[in-house]
UniProtKB/TrEMBL annotation:
InterPro entries, per the entry: DinF-like, MATE_fam, MATE_MdtK, MdtK-like
Listed name of the protein: Multidrug-efflux transporter
CDD domains, A to Z: MATE_DinF_like (cd13136)
Membrane topology classification: Multi-pass membrane protein
Chief subcellular location: membrane
Keywords for the protein's UniProt record, in alphabetical order: Antiport, Cell membrane, Ion transport, Membrane, Transmembrane, Transmembrane helix, Transport
Organism: Aureibaculum flavum
The keyword Transmembrane helix appears for this protein: yes
Xref: Pfam families: MatE
Location within or outside the cell: Cell membrane
Segments traversing the membrane: 48-66, 95-117, 137-155, 162-186, 198-218, 238-258, 278-298, 318-337, 357-378, 390-409, 415-435
Family classification: Belongs to the multi antimicrobial extrusion (MATE) (TC 2.A.66.1) family.
Length: 445
């Protein structure tokens, strides 16, 4: 039988650090777009708002469809723990094909209704034009992103975060370089492409990452990139798991939609400030997710081995590590509070709005850390129903009521970020209580 490594500090970090680097690549792409677009010479505030709105919608689509990454990771890790990978040989390619088909359909539907969609975000005039232009280019890469995420899920299930890290670093560095070249141009060689340049930079990076992912899938996994018929017996469970995670991601993105829609309605300066704050929030989330992903990767394996004591210990250790990381990041941001804002824009009104709420974003990070860790654990355990119900409660009984009350009293961006804090508190407390009741009891068996 294949021996499995013990869950030690060294082992956790061996998985977490590459996953952390791979995880922050995606928000760093968005942060780069945000920072560069926010510093262009013409209509910077409108361009910044457009990147925030289009990026928010695109992230919603990706997060909803990318839940199959967590689903396939959970199933593969369980079979890996039980030494039965040969039974799911056909599964990865089948889910990759399904993902590509779904994302292609979603691309054509969203393009057909693109102006209508962004008018729902209260975008109009120049902001609407920029948003539509940026989205039409970025959205071409939607199927490629889903392909990469599916392959990342396979690697995670195999307890391997190294190759996803290499792919993500390559995409990040390429995107940053292309952002500068295509947005600002090179005099006499490449014309400045403004906001469309940022979109093309992301798209080219997605193409390169997809090619790398396919190559490494063929060379570095025990699976074949060959669609086999009939469907694997696990495909039904994987799709059901994915469906519940889809609903979870949909409710998550409803909260984000309301936040951006209300911020846009408050005015250009507010949605620009909200874009900066939310991109930083996402960066923190994906940074901390490096440790949360270890829960996703390892918990399924431990469940397959029926090692409940190690599972409980894993939850405690990951929570401690994630909280420490969150505190360090928050302290660094407090120290560089003013320079961080100025890195994204020089518009005084935007900076005033941003600085007014940035402290809330930072103070909520330790709370976020615990929520993200238990998100990862429950994904690895294939507890999609618990995750679904938690997000439905947090969004519809927490975020939206608090946002509406805050908006009624004219709190504007404060209302949005107080609502986000309540949202994360509910996510944290529900998952911790359920996990404790369900899995702590097994440590005595």
């Amino acid at each position: 039988m294949q021996s499995k490594p013990k869950i030690t500090f060294t082992y956790i970090n061996k998985l977490a650090l590459p996953a952390l680097i791979a995880g922050i690549a995606e928000p760093l792409l968005s942060l780069t777009d945000t920072a560069i677009v926010g510093n262009i010479d013409v209509n910077a505030t409108e361009a910044l708002a457009a990147v925030g709105i289009a990026g928010s919608f695109l992230s919603a689509l990706i997060w909803i469809l990318a839940q199959t990454r967590s689903a396939i990771s959970a199933i593969i890790s369980r079979y890996f723990g039980a030494n039965r990978l040969d039974e799911i040989q056909s599964l990865p390619t089948q889910i990759i094909v399904i993902n590509l088909a779904l994302s292609a359909i979603l691309y054509f539907v969203s393009i057909a209704f693109v102006e209508f969609i962004f008018k729902l975000y209260n975008a109009e005039g120049l902001i609407l034009n920029y948003t539509v232009s940026y989205y039409k280019i970025r959205a071409v890469g939607l199927p490629l992103t889903l392909l990469v995420f599916s392959i990342f899920g396979v690697f995670r299930g195999l307890q391997n975060t190294f190759w996803p890290m290499i792919i993500s670093i390559t995409g990040l560095l390429l995107n940053v370089g292309l952002d500068f070249v295509l947005v600002f141009g090179i005099e006499g060689f490449i014309p400045a492409m403004h906001i469309e340049g940022a979109a093309y930079a992301s798209l080219i990076s997605q193409v390169v990452m997809a090619v790398m992912a396919l190559y490494l899938f063929i060379k570095k996994t025990p699976f074949e990139l060959k669609f086999l018929w009939p469907f694997n017996t696990e495909i039904k469970r994987l799709l059901l798991l994915s469906l519940n995670l889809f609903i979870r991601a949909l409710s998550l993105n409803i909260a984000i939609y309301f936040a951006n829609s209300y911020a846009t309605a408050y005015g250009n300066n507010y949605i620009a400030a909200q874009t900066i704050a939310f991109q930083i929030w996402l960066f923190f989330a994906f940074f901390i997710d490096g440790y949360a992903s270890v829960g996703n990767i390892v918990s399924g394996r431990l469940l397959g081995e029926k090692d409940y004591k190690s599972l409980w210990k894993l939850s405690v250790d990951l929570s401690k590590y994630a909280i420490v990381i969150a505190f360090i990041l928050a302290i660094i941001c407090f120290i560089f509070y003013i320079p961080i804002g100025k890195a994204f824009t020089k518009e005084t009104d935007v900076l005033d709005s941003f600085y007014g709420i940035f402290w809330i974003v930072l103070l909520m990070q330790p709370l976020n850390a615990i929520a993200f860790v238990f998100d990862g654990l429950f994904k690895g355990l294939a507890e999609a129903v618990t995750l679904r119900n938690t997000l439905l409660i947090a969004t519809f009984l927490g975020f939206i009521p608090v946002l509406l009350i805050g908006d009624y009293y004219g709190l504007k961006l404060y209302a949005i970020w107080i609502a986000f804090t309540v949202w994360m508190f509910l996510r944290t407390i529900i998952l911790v209580i359920v996990f404790r009741k369900k899995y702590l009891v097994n440590t005595t068996i």
